[in-house]
Design a protein that fits this description.
It holds the Pfam family adh_short. One of its GO terms (molecular function) is oxidoreductase activity. Keywords: Oxidoreductase. With 243 residues, the chain is of the alpha/beta class. It has a single domain, classed as NAD(P)-binding Rossmann-like Domain (Rossmann fold, 3-Layer(aba) Sandwich). The protein is 44% helix and 16% strand. It has an eight-stranded mixed β-sheet, sandwiched between helices. Helix 1 links the parallel strand 1 (4-8) and strand 2. Helix 3 packs parallel to helix 4 (95-122) and helix 4 packs parallel to helix 5 (144-165). The termini are far apart.
Length: 243
């Protein structure tokens, strides 16, 4: 019986690289993205199923899981990867843009976990990996709302470890540094000129694949160019255990 994976933000970048890697290993993939042309292209490339939708809408996650169930009858792996830059200027605050960023980067993760959990449980358990960012571990002044949203999903991952364990589901997050994807394209020339190293999408996909295979839950994996992926350890609070 083949492994079935659901991947959001799968039309390009990290999501597409994860789809290709998992499909090469024999997995059946269900891909989700609002880029209709891109998600269809990758879907056909990996011989998978695909859905065009906005992940900031709960209905998209519900429909994606239903597609996995209808097409393959199970679900084993979920990569909640969709994301967008913030671009929110506090000197001219745009509430609509703020809600868009939080909807894609944070709300979609909540919706994805909630929608996938029943089918994961019915399939005997599985693994969820969320794409966060290095900006989810430190304050990132150039894009504070993006940083906020990525901190939020780290908090969710850590809080869900025990509740999901009861259903046989593991959860973790990858926190990549600057990655050469369409999301970062507007800043690529600046980053290259500044000598900042960039990851490839394939490097991040390898880390995601490794996290899917990890037996423990709650791992937050830091992925940096030229370095082995490293689990991040949050500082202990006085009188309390950390992790």
């Amino acid at each position: 019986m083949s492994t079935v994976a659901l991947i959001t933000g799968a039309a390009s970048g990290i999501g597409a690289a994860v789809a290709r890697r998992l499909a090469a290993g024999g997995a059946d993939c269900v891909l989700v993205d609002r880029d209709a042309e891109g998600v269809e292209r990758v879907g056909k490339e990996v011989s998978g199923a695909w859905l065009v939708g906005d992940v900031s809408s709960e209905d998209t996650s519900v429909r994606a899981v239903a597609l996995a169930d209808e097409r393959y009858g199970r679900l084993d792996l979920v990569h909640l990867n969709a994301g967008t830059n913030g671009g929110v200027d506090f000197s001219a605050f745009d509430p609509e843009r703020y809600r868009t960023v939080m909807g894609i980067n944070a709300d979609s993760v909540v919706y994805g976990v909630a929608a996938a959990l029943p089918l994961l449980k019915r399939s005997g358990g599985g693994s969820i990996v969320v794409t966060s960012s290095m900006a989810g571990l430190v304050g990132f002044g150039p894009d504070p709302i993006y940083s906020m949203s990525k901190h939020a999903v780290i908090g969710l991952v850590r809080a869900l470890v025990e509740p999901l364990a009861a259903a046989g589901v593991r959860i973790g997050a990858v926190c990549p540094g600057f990655t050469d994807t369409p999301l970062i394209a507007p800043a690529k020339d600046f980053l290259v000129a500044a000598g900042l190293p960039m990851l490839t999408a394939d490097e991040v996909a390898a880390a995601v694949d490794g996290l899917f295979r990890e037996e423990s839950s709650g791992t937050v994996l830091v992925v940096q160019s030229g370095m082995e992926p490293t689990p991040y350890r949050h500082a202990d609070l006085p009188g309390m255990g950390g992790g």
